[in-house]
Amino acid sequence: MIFTSGCGLFNSARDKNKDNVVKDRTETAMDTMELTEIPESEVSPIKKDPQIIEIEDDFSAYKKDTYKIGMFIPFNASDSNYDVNDGGDQKFVNYYAGVKLALEEFDQEGHHFEVKVMDSERSPEVVRGKIERGEVKDFDVIVGPYDRNGLSLTAEYGKESKTAVISPWLSSTKITDENPYYIQLRPSLSSHYFKLIDHVNQNFTADEIVLVGRNINSDKNRFRYFQRTYSAINDFNNGNELKEYFINDDSLNYADFAFSNLFVGGGKKAIILPNWNYNDEDFIYSVLRRLNIERGRAEVFVYGMPILFDSEKIDFDFYKNLNIRTCVSEFVDWEDERVKTFMRKFYDKYGDLPTSDAFEGYDMINFIGSNLVKYGINFQLYLEQDRNRYLQTAYNIQKIYDEQDEQFEHIKYLENEHLDLIQYKGNKFVKID
């Protein structure tokens, strides 16, 4: 039912490269991240990747002829209102389409994976029932589920049974604890913020950097995180080294000048917009519109979260005039021959172009599968070795510890910290870092 071929199966959506169909906002991109404000007790903002030591051990004792992978995917197929053409359902149909294509390629190479797909129905009770009935006990890897409570149950099962659990959709620091079998593929909010401030720090002086937000607690909390991180990476003894510019909606909508003091004397400015939530979309648009009007002779570089790329409201003039640099976890290089090959294969098989979800599913299975083949059932212990670039992302898996764990003795979980900075140049988006 799910993979009946035909051009109507996969919806095309807006893509800012115009010639390609990828960005699929059937559900807003950030809904899979479940990001929250950064508390003062959050993990330390300073993150330095450890030196990678090549592993030369013999892993033959941990390898199998066939690996079993369980996938919790919320198809909701038992729902009487289920519609394969509905946006939310299409997200996971496309994701699984990418998974299937990757599995076929592994099979052709002689690597065999037995995959069982379970409809989680976005219900933690459904997930709990499958765990309690022993339906997941033979898996070497479990992917998902999508919903937070079901994922927490699965992560705890993985911890007890020593089974790797992959979270491809949700980013949260509170799913599990002291669990080296839990791997979160979505970078956290703090990883996004660190990527922004680190790049700004390398390319601008302190007097050129401005944090822009509203005079409300949520924005002030974000500013504090940036200030602490900026001070730490520069070995300053105290924070508040960066200029903070608070603005209100009235000045954005009705005043003649919202940023009258910001561009005096021209020069160069790096504007950081830390807002990520779609509830802030109108505010973000208004800030960009006024910056575009008021920048004068100043050279402006706006840094921000994935919403700057995903939002339908942002004009291409903003991308060009404000040199918008967006932090994203997934980005496709259309000149990559592997991308072109994948698109041809996908179209030949399904009669439609792949969405971003199809790319994501394809990359995820290639990442898991290649490491299973290389290291065997304990592959999660060696994921830090993987530095491959997949079709739309890479995986920089790091061990996450509690801030109080100064001896680094207890792993909370594993997290992918890879992020790209992209900018619109010429007539397309390109990766700049």
CATH topology of the largest domain: the name is: Rossmann fold
CATH class assignment of the largest domain? Alpha Beta
Helix percentage range: 25-40%
The CATH architecture category of the largest domain equals 3-Layer(aba) Sandwich
How many domain modules? 2
Name the poorly predicted regions: 1-46
Shape: globular
Subcellular location: Membrane
Main location: membrane
Keywords: Membrane, Transmembrane, Transmembrane helix
Organism: Portibacter lacus
Description:
The protein has 433 residues and is α/β, with parallel strands linked by helices. It has helices at 87-108, 124-132, 148-161, 189-203, 217-233, 249-253, 281-294, 307-310, 316-321, 337-350, 356-375, and strands at 66-73, 112-119, 141-143, 164-167, 182-184, 209-213, 243-246, 268-273, 299-304, 325-328, 397-401, 411-416, 420-425, 428-431. It has a seven-stranded mixed beta sheet, with helices on both faces. The chain has a seven-stranded mixed beta sheet with strand order 7-6-8-9-10-13-14. Helix 1 links the parallel strand 1 and strand 2. The protein is globular, with a radius of gyration of 22 Å. The two termini are 42 Å apart.
